[in-house]
Amino acid sequence: MDPLIPAPDPALALELALTIRHDGHGGVADDLTDPMGLTDWVRRRPTSFGYGFDAAGYTADPANLGRVHQLRNAVRALFARAVRPAPPSSADASRLLPVADALEVLNTAAGRVPAVPVLSWPEGGRPVLSPAPAGPAAPGDLLLTALASAAGLFLASPDAARLRACHAPRCVRYFLKEHPRQEWCKPACGNRARVARHHERHRPAG
Asked: Is the pLDDT of residue 1 over 80?
């Protein structure tokens, strides 16, 4: 794809969901608690958003942070649907948005900035159609549109079938299953789960 007019990276959807994580002390931490956290998260992904979004120059404000939180809630609710019949992440399993509401939030965010197909044809390459804003747009709106579009691309892709929630003790992550026997998001989680199972099997009765 022409690097001058890239589309959003579908992996952004999982990265957004993973801003909710275990805090290391038995609770849940949020990497996007304030505008500074969102600003830092965006700027560390300078080439992921597409639509001509200037991640390096982006500065979040409270209003945009609130909209990103709402979109993240929608994405996590749709992730919970994607992993059925397995249970969702324990981080928010008890307070997920209804699927219809989550879809409305996602589609509304995706439509904040109308896009048009732009044809590019690099020398020596093939012609490519990529989405670009139909007109000038505020950075916050571009961010929402890029994140929502990335989530839609991910959920409609074959990768969504590999999405899992990690249920190791103290983990709240979603992950992509890389091989048939994978149960956990990372080896450390597998080790904790095996230790927990061992203690459960050998716990004295009564």
From this structure: no
Is-cis flag, bond preceding 133, omega within 30? no
Q: How far is CA 31 from CA 35, 80, 89, 106, in A?
A: 10, 20, 17, 21
| Cross-strand pairs, 131 | 117
**Once rounded to an integer, what is the mean pLDDT over residues 189-196?**
64
Number of C-beta neighbours around residue 67 at 10 A: 19
Give the Cα separation of 198 and 15 in Å (integer).
32
The sign of the torsion formed by the CA atoms of 15, 18, 20, 24 equals negative
Give one DSSP letter per residue of 28-54, joined into a string. Answer: EEETTSSHHHHHHHHHT-TTSS-TT--
- Bridge partners, 130 (sequence order): 118
pLDDT attached to residue 198:
43
